[in-house]
Amino acid sequence: DGGITQSPKYLFRKEGQNVTLSCEQNLNHDAMYWYRQDPGQGLRLIYYSQIVNDFQKGDIAEGYSVSREKKESFPLTVTSAQKNPTAFYLCASRLAGNFGYTFGSGTRLTVV
Amino acid sequence: SQELEQSPQSLIVQEGKNLTINCTSSKTLYGLYWYKQKYGEGLIFLMMLQKGGEEKSHEKITAKLDEKKQQSSLHITASQPSHAGIYLCGADTIYDKIIFGKGTRLHILP
Hints:
The complex is a heterodimer. Chain A has strands spanning about 5, 10-15, 20-25, 30-40, 40-50, 55, 65, 75-80, 85-95, 100-105, 105-110. By secondary structure, chain A is mainly beta. Chain B is built from no helices and eleven strands. Chain B has strands spanning about 5, 10-15, 20-25, 30-35, 45-50, 55-60, 60-65, 70-75, 85-90, 100, 105-110. In chain B, strand 7 (about 60-65) and strand 8 form a beta hairpin.
């Protein structure tokens, strides 16, 4: 079955460490997105990519980095520069044009 | 920049009652999406509306987009415990990305 997979589901990180969240899709979607969700804040866009080897900053890109070396994969690295990384992270993908997103099941990152 | 405001922020209803969630945009909507999220999980696509006056239904959930395309409503008839969760509206922007409202938390009392 086609879908979008995020791993791991739960992640714990020590302060000062970088951590990478995985996002893989087999839907042949062109565009991929990373959102952060905090209580009462809704979804905020971190980075997005419309084609391989290209990506754009979203509204809250500081302290994050991404790569898009393959169409199927869009990993997100949370760097030590991100001051408040504890959050729920959602990856999504869509076909080009006005189609809704397909979302992964999310990764909950906690800094300890 | 475009913003979406959802109301109410939180809703508690008795099982079997009807309810409505609203989503208002600061700009004309060209694509409006409704999603549902179970706590701690990903978002599930419910419906997409594009035309002014459009109305779509799926099981007991009906979504409408007003004629001016600046407001959408989501109506649930005869609510059930399975309807509990967070409902989010999203809107297309010109940058090939969707912006979201802050969500409405729905609790169903048995």
